[in-house]
Design brief:
By secondary structure, this protein is an alpha+beta fold. The chain has one domain (7-337): Glutamine Phosphoribosylpyrophosphate, subunit 1, domain 1. The chain contains nine helices and 15 strands. It has helices at 50-61, 67-79, 124-134, 142-151, 162-172, 256-261, 264-273, 278-292, 294-297; strands at 6-9, 16-19, 27-30, 42-46, 101-106, 112-118, 139-141, 203-208, 214-220, 241-244, 248-254, 302-308, 313-317, 323-328, 334-337. The chain has a nine-stranded mixed sheet. Helix 1 packs antiparallel against helix 2, helix 2 runs antiparallel to helix 3 (124-134) and helix 7 crosses helix 8. The longest helix is centred in the last third of the chain and has 15 residues, at 278-292. It is globular and about 50 Å long. The two termini are 35 Å apart. The structure holds N-hydroxy-L-asparagine. The site of N-hydroxy-L-asparagine has 13 residues, from strand 11.
């Protein structure tokens, strides 16, 4: 079992590729494409912060736990991290200064739960799971979601950190809603903005457990400075996340409106049903978005990751700089650089 961090450029089709992730041990790794060989259990998740989240999920998977428990445990890590300004605690607020959270979860039986516009609760994914398990509904929003969370014993917390409040106050000076391309590539990031606020957004996680069952979760504070009440793709089953235990799962990050318009994650799973590999399915879903609005697509980021029933995985993004983390018995801290259109 290896625990050293690895960073692979999956755009290289043959031969060895060498990448050095910050504070990590460099390794030379040979990869053939954006798919893995078959393996289970396995967990994958979006962006660099997926490494820490995967490791929490791995504790469950490695003890023959259920994929559903793994994804919930995994995404709670970035939800609780105040330094991460795109998920949960410390998330950037909407234009009115309110941190509103969106999350969903889906299991191997097609059960799912979701919350949108939830305020003052640290772990929206766990509220989403309660919606799934304790109500006859799939989705609760706003005050109703908060009321339900409190009834279930969740406690109110202040989600707006001083750093995120400072960033919002700086934004208020111009108050222009201009989503900035999410990327781990620093060249996309305006220099003057504080913190790491535009590095990445949203954790989407997919897991295949040792019983061969799939589950997924997705959680976010949504697009920074959105209108109060705006809901993105992340809590919408079929858009931000979809699981079909016969086929595979997919999840999305990026400009949620485009993902919703194309029912992105459902599309990726259906493409896999029709024989596409996870990477090719993600690519086709991204191409659908680009084809519909080529001019718009130049300026936005959308990325998908997918995992199939065999444990093969892949990703595709509009813009470069998308990364996703993979954790299995061979590697606990693998970071893959996703292929992209631009
Ligand atoms: C949303 N998809 O609210 C989320 C945010 C995101 O990169 O992932 N941004 O639209």
């Amino acid at each position: 079992m290896y625990t050293r961090r690895k960073f692979i450029n999956t755009s290289v089709l043959t031969g060895a590729s060498l990448f050095i992730a910050a504070n990590s041990v460099a390794e030379v790794i040979s990869v053939k494409s954006d798919h893995s060989s078959e393996s289970k259990p396995v967990v994958i998740s979006t962006w660099d912060f997926g490494i820490a989240a995967n490791m929490a999920a791995w504790e469950v998977l490695n003890n023959n736990g259920r994929a559903l428990d793994a994804v919930e445990k995994g995404v709670r890590v970035p939800e609780a991290d105040p330094k991460n300004q795109s998920v949960g605690f410390g998330g950037l607020p909407d234009r009115d200064g309110k941190v509103t959270l969106d999350a969903c979860i889906m299991d191997e039986f097609g059960n799912c739960g979701s919350v949108a516009g939830l305020e003052q609760i640290l772990h929206p994914v766990s509220v989403a799971r309660k919606v799934m398990e304790k109500t006859p509904h799939v989705m609760l929003v706003g005050d109703g979601a908060l009321q339900f969370a409190l009834e279930q014993g969740f406690k109110k917390v202040k989600l707006l950190t001083s750093e995120s409040e400072k960033a919002w106050k700086a934004w208020l000076k111009k108050a222009e809603y201009k989503p900035i391309i999410n990327s781990e590539n620093k060249s996309f990031r305006p220099d003057k903005l504080p913190g790491n606020q535009y590095n990445h957004d949203t954790i989407g996680m997919l897991a295949l457990d040792s019983f061969g069952n799939l589950s997924g979760a997705c959680t976010t504070s949504g697009m920074a400075y959105k209108m109060h009440g705006r809901v993105g793709d992340s809590p919408i089953i079929g858009a931000g996340l979809y699981i079909d235990n016969e086929i595979g799962g997919a999840t999305a990050t990026g400009v949620g409106e485009e993902v919703i318009r194309n029912v992105g994650s459902f599309l990726v799973v259906e493409l896999m049903r029709n024989g596409y590999s996870p990477a090719d399915a993600c690519k086709e879903a991204v191409m659908r978005i680009i084809k519909k609005k080529p001019e718009n697509a130049k300026h936005i980021q959308v990325s998908f990751i997918a995992l199939n029933k065999k444990g093969e995985y892949g990703s595709y993004a509009i813009q470069k700089g998308f990364s996703f983390a993979v954790c299995n018995a061979e590697n606990q801290e693998l970071l893959l650089k996703g292929n992209s259109y631009y």
